[in-house]
Design a protein that fits this description.
alpha/beta, Rossmann fold, GMP Synthetase, Chain A, domain 3, 3 domains, 9-stranded mixed sheet, 8-stranded mixed sheet, 26 strands, about 30% helix
Length: about 550
């Protein structure tokens, strides 16, 4: 049976949810942004550290940024502008300002080391970056190796008034979280976004097929690559998620907790765009790893929506104060990024009274491809939900044949949210896109007769640490930069809470002394925190195929005994 023609999921669609979306409402993301700001003008749009900006204020400040990018920096349509900061008010202003100027947003993980930052900027060839001052020393180190000409620097407290002054003082002087940097020429974010009316914004017509975001991910080889997400891709996903969640939300009244980082496609599309379009107040959590402060912030709001990954939900549940939050208005709890443990989901429902729904997708699918029906179930489901409107999911074998119900194969996705391709990487694009428009996810799954899909394995060796993708090749390459390491092999190992940790197998150069601490310290120099191996094991020889490929399945078998 050809599942995509049969579309068994449609019979289980929630009442009132259409099977398709249309684009009659908006012509581009910029059009959506402007109409949303006009509709909800006086409503709070984003809140951070207790300071809120209205939709009108977001519109004005982003417009001023757009004018600066066009008229002062002379950036032309299609130029890339990188953003490197945590969840602060400057992030959505930057995102919308870049798009309004007819430019492409390049999101950068704010936890990156200088090496990782350098690699991405060389790939994107971005000439402009908007960066938090805490990371300015990183761009200083590698700027000369990249195409970056324009640097805009902001501070965590820059838009927070008197409270912001205190925050900046603490970060700079007490916590020492702003390393010294020396950059000859840079611009200050707050000065750019003031309402000076010096220039008119040039109306740049953004077409649906124009690239809006470069969303970096990793390849099967471990090399970075950027999904080119067009205005149509992202707008499609916004409309799809709106159609799916809409019956459970109230325009202009919702309060959405945004704890996942905005550089991540999940938070970008879901919070920064979809819930923005609903007229919701997005509560930006700058440091969700500080659970105590996070819970304290949650207690201030009668939030209606929260998104996260399994790890985040689990950490909240462990905090004794979390149960004292007000869940009376909570209507949707949405998990993605990694598999959700049944134990965590059940406890979440017990504490909050709200069923934890699961969504599935990838950067290449903008990201949502499927979501659990909201409100139609009274308990957690361990499936990936149903394909969203205008989306098809097919389980295929290696030859592209559509498999029958409950037959395991590669999960393939087709729909308007599927990326245009990878930035300057036709080979990787051809590896994952079929001539019929299917995107091959690399995940192995099954679909049942009701149209629900479930992951059973991964074709890729990718490791998921707290919802973030980690590619073994990168870890191995970094490890082997140590002169005492002869060969390295990397795998993911499950821990007690269902999350994965990184384990590194090491074979030493003969005659060299090396211990675990040395290996970890070496990795810390070049890798961001979640990529650092949790476990290190020394072995005589790394198992390889006859063509020299590391046999990670053998390492997994060794680890499992």
């Amino acid at each position: 049976m050809n599942l995509n023609h049969n579309k068994p999921w449609l019979k289980n669609y929630p009442e009132g949810v259409s099977s398709n979306i249309n684009f009659d409402e908006y012509s581009s993301l910029v059009d959506m942004f402007e109409k949303t700001c006009d509709r909800f003008s006086s409503n709070k749009a984003f809140t951070n550290f207790g300071v809120s900006l209205t939709f009108k204020e977001i519109y004005e400040k982003s417009s001023n940024l757009a004018s600066f990018l066009q008229n002062e920096l002379n950036l032309i349509k299609g130029s890339r502008v990188a953003i490197m900061m945590p969840n602060i008010l400057q992030y959505p202003i930057s995102t919308f300002g870049i798009l309004k100027a007819g430019l492409i947003v390049e999101n950068i993980n704010p936890l990156y080391t200088s090496r990782e930052l350098e690699t991405q900027l060389i790939n994107s060839k971005s000439e402009t970056i908007i960066i938090l001052e805490s990371f300015a020393h990183l761009i200083e180190k590698i700027k000369h190796k990249t195409s970056v000409k324009n640097i805009i620097i902001t501070s965590a407290g820059e838009l927070l008034g008197v409270k912001g002054l205190l925050i900046n003082f603490v970060l700079r002087k007490i916590k020492k979280m702003v390393p010294d940097y020396k950059i000859d020429k840079f611009y200050t974010f707050s000065k750019i976004i003031v309402n000076n009316h010096k220039y008119e914004i040039q109306r740049i017509s953004s077409e649906l097929d124009d690239v809006a975001f470069l969303q970096y991910t990793g390849g099967t080889s471990g090399t970075i690559k950027a999904a080119m997400l067009t205005h149509k891709n992202i707008l499609s996903n916004v409309l799809q998620v709106k159609e799916w969640l809409g019956p459970h939300l109230k325009y202009g009244e919702d309060v959405a907790i945004c704890a996942l980082p905005l550089y991540h496609i999940f938070a970008l599309t879901c919070n920064s765009l979809t819930f923005f379009n609903f007229g919701a107040n997005n509560i930006l959590i700058t440091n969700p790893r500080d659970i105590k402060s996070f819970v304290k912030e949650l207690k201030k709001h009668k939030f209606t929506f929260i998104s996260g990954v399994n790890t985040l939900f689990n950490k909240l549940l462990i905090d004794s104060n979390f149960k004292n939050c007000d869940f009376s208005k909570l209507r949707i709890s949405l998990a993605g990024g990694m598999q959700v443990q049944k134990k965590v989901a059940e406890e979440w429902q017990s504490v909050t009274g709200n069923v934890l729904s699961v969504g599935y997708g990838l950067s290449e699918t903008s990201p949502a491809a499927s979501i659990d029906p909201i409100g139609g179930v009274d308990r957690f489901s361990d499936s990936l939900g149903l394909p969203l409107p205008s989306t098809e999911i097919s389980i295929q074998d290696d030859e592209g044949k559509h498999l029958n119900f409950n037959e395991p194969g590669e999960i393939c996705i087709r729909g308007p949210q599927v990326m245009k391709g990878y930035w300057n990487n036709a080979e990787e694009t051809s590896n994952v896109m079929t001539s019929e428009g299917w995107f091959k996810t690399g995940d192995v799954g099954v679909m049942n007769e009701e149209g629900y899909t479930k992951i059973v394995d991964r074709k890729k060796d990718m490791i998921i640490v707290s919802g973030f993708n980690v590619y073994p090749n990168e870890i191995e390459e970094i490890a082997m930069m140590n002169e005492k390491i002869f060969e390295a092999g990397c795998i993911g190992v499950k821990n007690g809470d269902g999350n994965e940790n990184i384990k590194l197998f090491i074979s030493k150069v003969p005659g060299k002394n090396l211990n675990v601490e040395e290996v970890i310290d070496h990795c810390k120099k070049y890798l961001t925190g979640y990529k650092i191996p949790k476990f290190v094991e020394f072995i005589d020889e790394i198992p390889k195929s006859n063509v020299g490929k590391i046999l990670r399945r053998v390492l997994r078998k060794r680890n499992n005994g």
